Task: structure prediction
Amino acid sequence: MSDEAFSDINGNRISLDCQRHSDFCGEFTVSSPKLSFLKVTGCTCALWLCAYTIFFFTEVTEVLSVAIMLSLVGMMGHLHFLKIDHESLLVIGSLGIQMTSSYASGRESTTFIEMSKVKDVVINEAIYMQRVIYYLCILLKEPLHPNEVGDIVPVFQSCKPRLNCLIEIYKQCQEILAQS
Result:
């Protein structure tokens, strides 16, 4: 098990946890930092300060109630739908590849791709906001023409690890795929 610190494309710290369960199975988990308490507190205070300012001039008490409800609903929505704590890639050589995204609220989203549909796992590059970024992706076979690439499924879409992290994952994925 290796647990190292890497960074994402924006320079934020992320961690990679590689676990080889056997020669035919490996799990790779990329974790992003937890939600910052200072950031949440700052946004909440800014929203409430605006609400109190509006209340001061209008003396409408519903403004305060709406501000409190908006901040609570906004926080819950962000935790449940947007903030991904970690993403994992489980590669089982004879069975398939499973991608899991775990949200801050505890919700998980899982996608499984059968190995018969997988052509290869590669590192691809893209131009993103005047920068070249790299991402790990799974190439799927074209159903009618198995030698051609049908679809590209990007992995670690939320964490967006840099190339050095992707290379480590890629090497171990290729070792597992070569065994099967």
User: Anything to note?
Assistant: The first helix runs from residue 37 to 58. The chain has three helices and nine strands. The longest strand covers residues 118-128.
